[in-house]
Structure formats: structure tokens, C-alpha cells
Amino acid sequence: MFFHPMDFLILIAFGLSIWAQFKVKGNFNKWVEVPTRTGLTGAEVARRILDSKGLHHVPVEVVPGTLSDHYDPLSRVVRLSESVYYGASIASISVAAHEVGHAIQHQQSYGALVLRHRMFPLVNLTSGVAPFLLLGGFLFHSLSLIGIGIIFFSAAVAFQVITLPVEFNASSRAKKLMLAEGIMYNEEENGVKKVLNAAALTYVAAALISVLELIKYVMIFFQGQEEE
User: Fold this and answer.
1) Is the pTM higher than 0.85?
2) How far is it, in rounded angstroms, from Cα 28 to Cα 204?
């Protein structure tokens, strides 16, 4: 009951996810060694773009860790890892500008981001409960539990799918803003694209795994109904 042909595709997607994570680290480690022509650090780039968009009230803070960079929509703060905050490399300005892209999305009420924020409390609950419902359904051969588990798990899958346009849009904004502000020169654009595209791939892989898992559970559910 626990093995399903879809497991093979899920394993492939999981392998893609592992590869994507290595690619992110590899690209970051490569381009963090390449200095920018402007000499601006990630923190300076973030501050310049935020100010150009009237987001003077959004602070830029440094946080510990590697690739721990993020935008906090609740506190409205751009948080950058030390290597990005202090670094004046292609990788540093790419990541910094990407996170600022999320702050601008928030300012402009970008549809996918707004929906993602509204879904978060629900998904935070359902994603924690869904595995137990599905496991209980399989152990006790209860289609009802499996069905409820699928509904709960669907919310988490939808959240990850909605994350994709949010991340791609933030990267697109980052590249355009860096060019517009004179932060990135044309010859540096290739490095910026490689850093941002590698990061986007991790979100694609995560969403793919979730979608395939959902399809698997739905197929099991309907197969169980036919056997009754």
C-alpha cells in the first residue's frame, strides 16, 4: 500500500532538489569571489534600491548563517547573511537585490505575494496535520482520513506553487532595478542571472515534489474507492 509507481517520479524530483541545492551553493561560492565593478556591498545595494522606491522605513539587517537571506513581511525588514551584507561581489548584490524585490512586491501589493501571506496561517496548520492524517489513513485503511489528509496537503502544495511566481518576479525585478540604478553593468548580468536562476530552481524542485506527492495520494484514494 505504501509503494506506488509515482514514487519513482518523486525520487527523481527529490534528486533534482538535491542537485538544485548543490547548484545554488556552487554558483554562490563561485560568484561571491567575483567583485562588482561599482564596489558596492549587498547592504549598500539593498539600501539604494529601497530608497529609490521610497522604502526608507524598511531597514536592512545582518543575520548569521549562509544563504539565510530573506525579507520579513511582518516586521518589514530585509535581512541579509554576513557574506551578502558585507560582500561586494556579484553573488552578494544579486541576493540582496532579490530580497529587496520582495519588499517592493509588498509595497505594491503584488497579487501572488498577498495571496501567499494570507495563506500562510492556514498552511502552517494544515502542513503539520496532513502527514498524520495520511499516515493514519494508510495504517487503518481509512479512505476518509486519507481524503481529509489530501485536502490539507493540497493547501501546502498550493502554497509552494504560488511561491514560484513570487520568487521569479522578485528576481526579475532585481535584475531590472540593478540595471536602472547603475548597480550592475551589462557584462555582469550573466553572473547575476546564474546566481538567481540557480536559487529559483530550488523552488521549482520543491514544488514539483509536492505536486507529484499530491497526485500519488489522489491516485491511491481513487484506487481505494474502486476496490471497495
Assistant:
1) yes
2) 18
Q: Report yes or no on 1 lying in a domain.
A: no
Rg (CA), the chain: 20
- Collect all residues with Cβ–Cβ distance below 8 Å to 175 and sequence separation of at least 6: 97, 184, 189, 192, 193, 196
Backbone φ and ψ of 118, nearest 5°? -70, -30
Q: What is d(CA 117, CA 5) in angstroms, rounded to the nearest whole number?
A: 35
Question: Active-site residues: which are they?
Answer: 99
Question: Total structural domains in the chain?
Answer: 1
Rounded CA-CA distance 196/175 in Å is 9
What is the residue range of 35's domain? 6-227
For the segment 146-157, the average pLDDT, to the nearest whole number, is: 96
CA distance 74 to 69: 15
Residue 1 has pLDDT above 50, yes or no: no
**Higher pLDDT residue, 63 or 11?**
63
DSSP type of residue 67: S
pLDDT-derived band of residue 4, with 50, 70 and 90 as boundaries?
A: low
**CA contacts within 13 A on the Cβ side of 6:** 15
Asked if residue 51 belongs to a domain, the reply is yes
Q: What is the DSSP string of 184-208?
A: S-GGGHHHHHHHHHHHHHHHHHHHH
